[in-house]
Amino acid sequence: MNKILIKNIFLCACMDDGSREIKDCDILIEGNRIKSIGKNIQEPADTIIDGRYKIALPGFVNTHHHFYQTLTRVLPQVADAKLFDWLIYLYRIWEHLSPEWVKVSTKLAVGELFLSGCTTSLDHYYVFPQRSENLIDIEIDTARELGVRFHPTRGSMSLSVKDGGLPPDSVVQKDEEILKDTERLIKKYHDYKDFAMTRIVNAPCSPFSVSTGIMKESIKFARKHRILSHTHLAETVDEENFCKEKFGDTPVKYMERVGWLGEDVLFAHCVHLSNDDMKLLGGTKSCVAHCPTSNLRLGSGIAPIRTLMENGATVSIGVDGSASNDSSNMLLEIRNAMMVARVRTGVESMPARDAFYMATRGGAKALGRSDIGELAPGKAADIALFNCRDISFGGTGDALAALLFCGRDFTASDVICDGKIVVKNKQLQVFDEKEIWDEAGRIFRRDIAPNL
């Protein structure tokens, strides 16, 4: 069995129950798991990584993304648009999704995530153009080839413009079709075992793009099959007004009405919440994916993360779609999560270590996992190393916090996922970055530019 030994790590932030931070230690990996953490490990290994001047963290867990959006970043037509206007324009672009688009966008997203220390990601895929079949299979197969620990969602939209929703008819589906395909994907890909690399998630897009029927039926379906459920929620004031006008409730109260609250539910955003909403989310142990950069870029607001946590909700971090973030950099997202919380609830409300906890243990809990998000013997060999021997870290007194306060490029030096090296010396090992950049440009010119 292949063994990797990381020697002389400057600081290992375990993110375990005791919040241990171990200086000058080694990590021994055997196969896809951590075998031991300690000083001066002498066991032979196939590969040795120099950990001097490096900080080790559990691989980050990204709990909300839209991989396909990596090819529609920074479009000038919607650079300054708010969410609903941004979506209405982009739906007409995304209806031209092609197999190549999905494959290359997945590579772009996963590559960026790896380079920023992320080893596990949920992806909210919900656009199914009527002329194309099984695009989500292409995404899943590509992610599996790259070696990322992946929670793809079988998203959906069933409420088109003619029914009072936002998406066009060309990308909506019928309820039966959605549930049938979700079941197909579970049978084909879902792994219920510990250390699983692929788990399917149920994910109607949002209250303004799916019917009440699919919300009710999909949560029953998900609980029958013991899978996670995910959707956007309470992202903007426009969404709140939509829900009040259409359903007579706030978005959170509407979720309660359709059965969508609990530990097996993960909501993206949750920016606009009343005190009652936050108590309801916390009291039901529901989970939230905090996406600060996207919320800032679209002017949606700042989520009340600390208050949600105090009420009992599980809070994690997501980079959101690359067309609303316009990046898939997880370390930068953790920094922004720390900063915006301080603006909303005070500078003491979000220490750096709490932000890292959300991106590791918080993400693992939100995805219903206990095998990732922590550095300890027996846990998954998902590890991110960051080199702090850099001019931007000169004169720092707290090396771990400095990763968020002082970093320049927010790039990991080395990343291991499932016991395999995917980033080495800040270079991706899973594909050639320049070749993918060229491919992305070609597909943009062919599939996207003519439709702008």
Task: Give the topology.
Layout: E1 3-13, E2 21-30, E3 33-38, E4 47-50, E5 54-58, E6 60-62, H1 83-94, H2 99-115, E7 118-125, H3 135-146, E8 149-156, H4 175-189, E9 201-204, H5 212-225, E10 229-233, H6 237-247, H7 251-257, E11 265-269, H8 275-283, E12 287-290, H9 292-297, H10 305-310, E13 314-317, H11 322-325, H12 330-345, H13 352-366, E14 383-387, H14 399-405, E15 414-417, E16 420-424, E17 427-428, H15 433-448
Parallel strand pairs: 1-4, 1-5, 6-7, 7-8, 8-9, 10-11, 11-12, 12-13
Antiparallel strand pairs: 1-2, 2-3, 5-14, 14-15, 15-16, 16-17
Explain what you see.
This protein has 452 residues and is of the alpha/beta class. It folds into 2 domains: 3-58 and 381-428, Urease, subunit C, domain 1, CATH 2.30.40.10; 60-366, Metal-dependent hydrolases (TIM Barrel), CATH 3.20.20.140. Helix content is 37%, strand content 21%. The chain contains 15 helices and 17 strands. The strands form 3 sheets. Strands 1, 2, 3, 4, 5, 14, 15, 16 and 17 form a 9-stranded mixed beta sheet that branches. Strands 6-7-8-9 form a 4-stranded parallel beta sheet. β7, α3 and β8 form a beta-alpha-beta unit. α2 (99-115) runs parallel beside α3 (135-146), α4 (175-189) packs parallel to α5 (212-225) and α12 (330-345) crosses α13 (352-366). The longest helix has 17 residues, at 99-115. The chain starts with a strand and ends with a helix. The mean pLDDT is 96.
